[in-house]
Design goal:
Belongs to the glutaminase family. There is one protein chain. With 337 residues, this protein is of the alpha/beta class. The chain has one domain. 46% of the residues lie in helices and 9% in strands. It contains 9 helices and 10 strands. Helix 2 crosses helix 3 and helix 2 packs across helix 8. The longest helix is centred in the C-terminal third of the chain and has 28 residues. The radius of gyration is 19 Å and the shape is globular. The N terminus and C terminus are likely disordered.
């Protein structure tokens, strides 16, 4: 088990392993059996996790493996907290109350153009909000950006993306050819378990999930414009393109999660593969005060507690180092060393 004192130290190692995997051209999915994984647990005794079986885990007590793409998504979630604070971010998520079962991602719908997918939404909030405020609504704009993003990456990373203009014209209930392009590319690597692209994108929920993942990709890219990431690490001149590529691969994995939720629903299963993050109080679900993360039962229940613990560890480290105050978000004027 890799134990470190600071999240930013671990992220350096995680970045190195991600680079090695990308060099080998291995696509990412949200399924543990198909995902290259890296050990990354942190000493954080007060951050607790409750999984679908209501089992309590405390970060630092259990050695587990983490999905690499999930590490990147939790980093986006941490960025959202620094921008908006705990109250607003958790207000956009479905919180876990007592022993009640919170809704799976297949039951979540978008609100005012913002997809309420607890696995994708937090990292996308900033970009979605900007699109709504400055560009008159996200749908058409995000579709255009998706097309430009795919076209821009295609020359360097043809394995992961296709030009939407090459996609077969299919009439969708909402969205555009960019959504189909993503679905076709996922299907190319058997990430959709035999579902046809037209079936994958036929529901409004899935289109909303696509919008969220693209926005999260843009958020992860443009965040580095000031030369530093959320932990204050200097960003090399060449890094934005690397981050854009990495986050785009993550976006494909996120979209795959939404598709799997839809397939799960069609099979008559309940629950979902979402996760919930929120502040806790003394004794809530047996956890000490701090950050509370719950992973739902359903498809992928063995993986999500690991993702949740990783998120809890990251939030705990931000708080422990004084960079993040769980009551107010990122402390004004505080910059990571």
């Amino acid at each position: 088990m890799l134990q470190v004192s600071f999240v930013r130290d671990a992220l350096v190692e995680i970045d190195r392993r991600q680079a090695e995997i990308l060099d080998r051209g291995i696509p990412y999915t949200g399924i543990a059996a198909q995902t290259d994984r890296s050990t990354a647990l942190f000493e954080c005794g007060w951050a607790g996790v409750v999984n679908g079986r209501v089992e309590i885990h405390v970060v630092g007590e259990t050695a587990e493996l983490w999905s690499l793409q999930s590490v990147s998504k939790t980093e986006m979630l941490a960025r959202a907290l620094t921008h908006f604070g705990m109250k607003r971010v958790t207000g956009e998520l479905v919180l876990f109350h007592g022993s009640s079962h919170f809704r799976g991602t297949t039951e979540l719908r978008d609100t005012n153009g913002m997809p309420k997918n607890p696995f994708v939404n937090p990292g996308a909030m900033r970009v979605i909000a900007a699109l709504i405020e400055h560009l008159g609504g996200p749908r058409a704009v995000v579709d255009d950006v998706l097309g430009a993003l795919n076209f821009r990456l295609r020359a360097d990373t043809p394995r992961f993306f296709v030009d939407p203009r090459e996609a077969e014209p299919v009439q969708l209930a909402a969205g555009g050819s960019g959504n189909l392009a993503v679905a076709q590319e996922l299907a190319r690597y058997d990430m959709l378990f035999g579902l046809e692209p037209e079936v994958v994108v036929e529901t409004y929920h899935t289109v909303c999930a696509t919008t969220g993942t693209v926005a999260a990709t843009l958020e992860a890219f443009f965040h580095f414009a000031d030369g530093h990431d959320v932990f204050g690490r200097p960003v090399l001149p060449c890094e934005p393109s690397w981050r854009l590529l990495m986050s785009s691969v993550v976006a494909l994995g996120s979209y795959s999660n939404a598709v799997l939720d839809m397939a799960d629903r069609r099979a008559g299963k309940t629950g979902g593969s979402g996760m919930v993050v929120g502040p806790t109080f003394e004794g809530a679900q047996g956890t000490p005060p701090g950050v509370f993360v719950a992973a739902s039962p359903g498809l992928g229940e063995d993986l999500n507690p690991l993702v949740a613990m990783r998120a809890a560890a990251m939030f705990g480290e931000l708080t422990r180092t004084g960079l993040f105050d769980s009551r107010y978000g990122m402390r004004p004027g505080v910059t990571a060393a």
